[in-house]
Design a protein that fits this description.
Distance between the termini: 86 Å
Number of helices: 18
Helix content: 10-25%
Strand order of the largest sheet: 4-3-5-10-7-8
Bound molecules: beta-D-mannopyranose
Number of strands: 45
Structural class: alpha+beta
Strand content: 25-35%
Length: 946
Amino acid sequence: MGCGGKRSGMLAVVMLWWSFVITTATTTTRAAANWTLTGGNDTVMPVGGSVPGGVYSDLLAAGVLDQGDIYYRYNDLDYRWVSKSNWTYSTQISVDSSLLSHSRVALIFDGLDTAAEIVVNSQTVGYSDNMFVRYAFDVKDQLQEGDSNTLEVKFESPVEYATRKYDIQAEDYEVPPKCVDAAFKGECHANHIRKMQASFSWDWGPAFPNLGIWKDWHLVGWDSMLVTDVYFSATPTSDLPSRPDASFRPGWNITVKVWCDASVESGEVEGSLTLSLGDIYTVKKPITANVENYEAVLESNFTVDENQVDMWWPNEYGAQPLYPLTASWSDAAQVETSTKTVRVGFRTVELNQDYIDSSNTSLGRYYRMKVNNVVMFMKGSNWIPAHILPEYVTPGYTRYLLRMAADAHQNCMRVWGGGIYESDIFYETADELGILIWEDMMFACSMYPVDDAFLSSVTAEVITQVRRLQHHPSILLWAGNNENEGALRDDWYGTSTNFDQYKADYIKLYVETIRPVTLENDDTRPIIVSSPSNGLESEEEGYIAENPGSTKYGDVHYYNYYMDAWKGEGFPRARFASEYGFQSWPSFKSMRDVTVEEDWSSTSAMSYHRQHHPLGQEELALQVGLHLVTPQEDGSAASYQHYIYVTQIHQAMAVKMETEFYRRWMSSITEDGEGYTSGALYWQLNDVWQGASWASVELGGRWKMLHYYSKNFFAPVITSLYMTEEDVKVYVVSDLIDDIQTANLNIELHRYDEFEPKLVISSDISVEGQTASEALSLSIWNDLHIDTHCQHSLYDPVDVCFVTSNLTVADSATIVPDNFYFLGKPKDAPLVHAQVKVNSVSGPVVSSGGNWTFTVQVTSDAVALFVWMETDSPGYFSQNGFIMTQPSVDVLFYAGQEITSGELESSLTVTCLTDTYPSRSHTQEESHDMKDRVFHPNDLNNVIFL
Ligand code: BMA
């Protein structure tokens, strides 16, 4: 049936909330849609419901959850009953004759979380079983004219649904894991429900198995076709140079596909497609669309000439110009029009997996990203959901987190497979900031069922998401899952007894379902089966490689909580490090909001409750104790703050050393083929709650020390130091395309007990672009002369001194952050108890963009380690957690809200490492150990005995 079958001239839309979608509409009755939430297995009176929204936030707003914030103390456990109950969202809607006059009327949900029966005027119109699918239910026959149409979405408890599905599956064979580790305090069988896997708990987050109408909904009547998604492919008409060049503006061959929802199930639909790309190209052409299963895809090819558009570049490689692409479908009579606008960018992406040496394949393959034909080192982090309840995530918060990543020089972010396909605003912001998105499909750390119903739900999910996201220039690649190849090969869940079955299932799901469905809808970017994997090598080995953690192929996830990370050596020389990290606790300011005094210690029941990583507290204590004096805790807020502070130091330092290691291996390779590391994405950028985790930014946006450090270790040019047996190696790593002809490298040898450096080694160097190279190798005895400079009657010379590095680039705007390296361990060092304070706060300087910047002058009377400032005011500092080798340092504070310098000053606190040492009031007799004694500079010897 063509569009001649339509009966009325206008398209009626009751709900229309697609971003950038304009559809000729006759009615909009969203205001009338007041939702009611009922359920709780009949224990709860009906309350107001929010759409989009979720059951936890609605029950909280209604006062049913009466113990306050969902994250307060043990509320995650106390509120768990919510997820074990069934709930119904219902509303009454008014429908007019014009809506019903259309040939198709559908109730469209952009997202239902998760298992629900959809009922219109007491008649079931369909079911949902996947949080990531866009559902369209035909409702023309069920609706009636007037304002008393009832719409009900009846959700089954996700916990019970998953258990039910697990039980059915287990009658055949079990699909593990049966349950999360007890340390997660979570719910079982998340792998049997297509919903945010982490909502059942994770090793960094609580279980809040939400349910509700989590995205927008629309009631739409139409007679021809609705534009749902727009595909964009751009291939340059000439070879791209291998260096970024803003003046190079090639021509592009463009393919646009427009996916439409048709009003008819099959047949031909007449109409016209109008496409416009900014003011560069417009076309309107008549089309006969072929409809199958209510869908049509319209294709158009055209060319953009040279010098018409600028290329899109990742962060710090160039600009991110975006062009509006509008697709409109009009029926033949030109009365019904559906339009969608997306923003596109002109760039190419490639995951290069060439053999390192085709004449010696045993060296393995590259795993490097080429964007616009330029090989780029990927610097970034892993993204988890911004809150355990998606309805609490504002566009502003999403933007903020991405901006903080871009500010810290990140050009890549992995959307991890246990969360959600992110919001439109997330990808739009990534497009604007030049952050390349490594997009996992939402499967993580599990085996998955492969029955027909499951596979067809996954197919619908992949279609929904790939079509929604395809046009974003920021998306770098698709990855089928998180860690499931490794889980199977290394038998994480006892699958080895039935390995062939699980392997066959794995191939069915990722290789035979997800991959082809993805490629059918997006042939413009790479898809890898698993993340991590050995890439092509995994494929050649039948998808489950013998050693998926190989350093010669693909990407690697590496965690080791027993190593001495501060040495800066011993990490895998991987091709691509897509996950690695260490834990810490969020600030006291964050913890204070959700705890009470009795919780304030590392060994409290609350600390164990919020430490979901098995043995996490013990490993954290071990890691802290490797390098730092473990603060004594006495249950006071002050000692708890010291504990938090040292965990953040440990994390910042360990991740810094590991990241620098990966960067140092960017351009060299061992004889065995290890090296040529092409990316470092630390785990993890953000947090879902206030608990122990690997995050660099706390829930709410406060920076942990790691985030400050990341701004330095991800800088385009860095110096990086590490020590072999007797030599300090000084590397310079540059991501810049161009060489730096002249730079001055200064290495200083410092004692912990005096400001003046003992030795300065200065050297003029040149820095090769996109290269990591050893600039200096300094023998600690013969070059640094630590035997003379670092003498101390009680100490080993390596413990008395540390080294700083500084690189000044002549004639360039390139600012290279200063760096440092401890020859020994701070816990063994003769630290002076420094008096560090905020001397003054001046400003603000208000920029034209309305940014408020203050200058904070920090002073110290001795060398101070890990100088850490905190304030209640939103904002962040230009540096924090730094080493003071001078009596005074100016630090900028970028305020997130309007404040006075006085207000800022009075809220500022500053801590340095020796503040966490046992108090000076301890006498020698009181101390169990001489090492507990701390002296003030005025004290005898001016040292701390450790
Ligand atoms: C990896 C991730 C997550 C996890 C993290 C820290 O396994 O993929 O599953 O949170 O390590 O353990």
